[in-house]
Amino acid sequence: MALNVETISKLERRITISVPLQPLQAQIHQRLAQMSRTAKFAGFRPGKAPMGLVNQHYGDQVRDEVYSGAVEKSFGDAVDEAKLRVAGYPNIEHKPFDAATQNLEYTATFEVFPEVVYGDLAKMKIERPVIEVGEADVKKTLDVLVKQRVSYSPVKRAAKKGDSINVTLKASIDGKEVESTGDKGIDLVLGEAGRVESFDAELTGGKVGTSKQFDISYPADHTPEQLAGKTVTYDVTYVSVSEPKLPALDADFAKSLGIEDGDVEKMKAEITESLNQEVAKRVSAKLKEQVFQALVESADFEIPRILLGSEINRMMETTAQNLKQRGADLSTIKLEPSMFEEQAKRSTTLRLILGELINTNGLHANADQIRAMVDVFSQSFERPADVVTWYYADPKRLDEPSALATEENAVAYVLSKAKVTDKKVKFDDLMGNA
């Protein structure tokens, strides 16, 4: 086999390869001989047909198969000999196989993986969020839990903020009805997030059995778009007004949260532990996010176009599937590759860096680390032991926990080298609470 390697660009290569045909003829003859033993032709018993007839029917097919196999093998041997790491599939060009005489010549154009270069880990600056869960944080969490278990009791007074009201409603724009609840009515809690404030303000003060009409002008950027920039006239009738009743922080409340003996202090201790676990997860996520960003920003290499295109296609397919699952009409949505290019560049760059970092420093997860990750996955299920058994029943199922555990090793390695400083943060800021 003769070959010539040509550098087209920083990442693109072209190899011209010449494969002698004589050794391949023996393979072709051997395959045809094997086929002749079972081939069926009219007028001949199986295995008794002349080789000329077998060749006439199957010769071109066998030749193409042998030559295609020779191209695939010779290309693999060539890139190994030239010590090239091929990114994606090559574009192979050759003359028709039946035109080859003494040698089979073809060219393969492809991209190679770049030399992955990233910044000095020791110079990377990472801020580690530091927070201690206090009594105030536990109290806020309890307040949320209490509000989630609110009940409502009917009252005869006028509705005020925090009350639950049931109203029948008709909405019209320019005199044309666009929405109606019919006779059933809808339940609304006055002051809850997600509605235009002026709407709830108009509903405040109403009493059971009374009706009211008012106009609401929606801003130009309002969602849904059907109401954006429009003035809507509402006709409402109050069916019921109920005031909120919050449960007491007593033994019954503790039991409702799974504390069998109703011990309120035990309930608070478990909430504190739960918050500490969530804080640890959020801190870990913040650190990983900073590490990944620092690695990407320090990258100094080109990305193979074929890898970038593959990532863009993957993201487009995932987005389309998600939209479809949500009931979106994909025929009305046009997804363009440009929408995903920047995100694809980042994820591809990060994947190449992590691969280099992991392979160079031997950071692949060991069996214990993989098992620990499986245990984490299983804890969110009712029967964790069954989940663990399921994962280990098929080695392929361990790919995800193995990849995540390896990723954690890479993050820990970078943190061990980088300049990490502690930064105190507020509980609400870490949790993303408004």
TrEMBL record:
EC number, as in UniProt: 5.2.1.8
Lineage start: Bacteria, Pseudomonadati, Pseudomonadota, Betaproteobacteria, Nitrosomonadales
Notes on the domains: Consists of 3 domains; the N-terminus binds the ribosome, the middle domain has PPIase activity, while the C-terminus has intrinsic chaperone activity on its own.
HAMAP family: Trigger_factor_Tig
Gene Ontology terms: biological process: 'de novo' cotranslational protein folding; cell division; protein transport; protein unfolding
Trigger factor C-terminal domain boundaries: 264-415
Main location: cytoplasm
Superkingdom of this protein's organism: Bacteria
Reactions listed under catalytic activity: [protein]-peptidylproline (omega=180) = [protein]-peptidylproline (omega=0)
GO cellular component, one term: cytoplasm
Name assigned to this protein: Trigger factor
Keyword annotations from UniProtKB, A to Z: Cell cycle, Cell division, Chaperone, Cytoplasm, Isomerase, Rotamase
InterPro entries found in the cross-reference section: PPIase_dom_sf (IPR046357), PPIase_FKBP_dom (IPR001179), Trig_fac (IPR005215), Trigger_fac_C (IPR008880), Trigger_fac_C_sf (IPR037041), Trigger_fac_ribosome-bd_bac (IPR008881), Trigger_fac_ribosome-bd_sf (IPR036611), Trigger_fact/SurA_dom_sf (IPR027304)
Chain's gene name: tig
Role noted for this protein: Involved in protein export. Acts as a chaperone by maintaining the newly synthesized protein in an open conformation. Functions as a peptidyl-prolyl cis-trans isomerase.
PPIase FKBP-type domain mapped to chain residues: 156-237
